[in-house]
Backbone:
């Protein structure tokens, strides 16, 4: 398989304060938290991660006794926010979300020397969810399966709308289409909803997204579901009859995750308080209903399990690059 070539640019803005906060390990875990907490989502407003983050905030406030604010910082598929976070002061009152893109994909591609952070700079706290991506096509093209894609690509250049060319969506497409030897280009959007809208308008041939994000367009007939990036078929209508990669003989897939992170060195007591608070929030009936609506799995794997997940995706990425 030919080597994947990805190029991307990141505008990294680092703000230095005259007044330094204590380092993460200097905060008293018994007293924490004493003021508001901010949770940064490095992806678009209205996306699955953003919705879950904002929905959890009021329940976290009840559990921890202080306001928990959800915010967003976009750029380079999440890499800008992760860079700014790790370059700033070590503060356990600022948390951030991350996933496979920044920790397993971006570090293994051309241009990775521009990344100023690594997975080892962070302490994984708890996973918000695991989700399966789907590939959809502009319904006017008559593409409904992988064979149709091959036939279409024989006379057309495929354009695929993705939320970040160095994220999970972009890599899943690259791995499959490179193996098939297809001519394609990834078109980057700041959010899967924008990517889906582009495919629905006919600006791109295909789009990759979470199932829930594509649901309305699929049910209305604007987009056609083509492929599920998993080893088994989806349990969710209208994707139940859509072929999955595993049954087609391909093994380059993994669940998309959203891990809550703090700086490495943060007091274990603070990490435990966060884990307990989120586990309690996950038990709320409203959150379980939300997860069902978003067609995602509640999968609160702790740090050591998330370490294994990131390493597994790294191996998949490296194996694809060989």
Residues:
């Amino acid at each position: 398989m030919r080597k994947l070539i990805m190029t991307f640019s990141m505008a990294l803005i680092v703000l230095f304060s005259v007044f330094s906060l204590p380092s993460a390990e200097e905060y008293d875990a018994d007293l924490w938290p004493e003021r508001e907490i901010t949770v940064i989502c490095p992806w678009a407003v209205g996306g699955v991660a953003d919705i879950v983050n904002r929905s959890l905030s009021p329940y976290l406030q009840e559990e921890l006794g202080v306001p928990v604010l959800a915010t967003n910082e976009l750029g380079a598929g999440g890499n800008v926010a992760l860079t700014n976070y790790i370059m700033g002061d070590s503060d356990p009152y600022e948390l951030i979300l991350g996933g496979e893109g920044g920790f397993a994909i971006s570090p293994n591609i051309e241009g990775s020397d521009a990344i100023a952070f690594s997975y080892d700079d962070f302490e994984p706290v708890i996973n918000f969810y695991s989700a399966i991506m789907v590939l959809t096509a502009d319904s006017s093209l008559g593409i409904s399966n992988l064979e149709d894609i091959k036939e279409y690509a024989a006379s057309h250049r495929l354009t695929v709308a993705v939320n970040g060319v160095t994220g999970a969506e972009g890599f899943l497409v690259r791995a499959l289409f490179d193996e098939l030897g297809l001519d394609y280009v990834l078109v980057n959007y700041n959010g899967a909803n924008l990517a889906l809208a582009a495919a629905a308008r006919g600006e791109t041939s295909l789009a990759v997204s979470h199932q829930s994000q594509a649901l309305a367009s699929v049910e209305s007939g604007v987009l056609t579901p083509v492929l599920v990036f998993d080893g088994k078929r989806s349990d969710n209508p209208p994707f139940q009859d859509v072929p999955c990669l595993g049954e087609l003989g391909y093994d380059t897939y993994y669940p998309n995750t959203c891990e809550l992170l703090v700086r490495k060195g943060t007091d274990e007591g603070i990490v435990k308080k966060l884990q307990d608070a989120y586990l309690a929030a996950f038990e709320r009936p409203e959150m379980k209903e939300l997860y069902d609506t978003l067609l995602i799995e509640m999968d609160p794997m702790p740090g050591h399990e998330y370490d294994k997940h990131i390493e597994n995706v790294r191996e998949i990425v490296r194996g694809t690059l060989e």
